[in-house]
Design goal:
InterPro entries: Prot-tyrosine_phosphatase-like (IPR029021)
Largest sheet: none
Order of helices and strands: HHHHHHHH
Distance between the termini: 20 Å
Shape: globular
Number of helices: 8
Radius of gyration: 16 Å
Oligomer: single chain
Number of domains: 1
Helix content: 55-70%
């Protein structure tokens, strides 16, 4: 979470990108904090699915798309439904405060995300 806060001051400290950066939380926490609606986040996630093999290749990890699809089938769900479930009731500000960020830091991140 601190890496997200560090984005408010470009050049101050650069976060390292790694395979963990592809984690859904890394993508969706900033979107939710910026006020993007859960339905829009889920829709974007759904549209991104065909590009996952390229992402995995760029990250130098094995293609996980078949494994992801198998899990979704086994659980009788979809990527969209899974994302909506994950976002349901998510209080991003509360999570960031619990991670030790101050209200000022959270606002700085939000301002940076929405371009204010």
């Amino acid at each position: 979470m601190r890496t997200i806060v560090d984005l408010r001051n470009p050049g101050e400290r650069q976060g390292d990108l790694s395979a963990r950066s592809a984690d859904l939380t890394t993508v969706n926490v900033p979107l939710a904090l910026a006020g993007v609606r859960p339905d829009d986040i889920a829709g974007d996630y759904e549209l991104s699915a065909p590009r996952l093999p390229g992402l995995f290749a760029a990250l130098g990890i094995d293609d996980q798309t078949d494994r992801i699809q198998d899990i979704l089938v086994r659980k009788n769900t979809t990527a969209r439904a899974t994302m909506l479930d994950a976002l349901d009731g998510l209080d991003v500000e509360d999570r960031l405060r619990a991670a030790g960020l101050s209200a000022q830091e959270i606002q700085a991140v939000r301002d940076r995300l929405v371009g204010t």
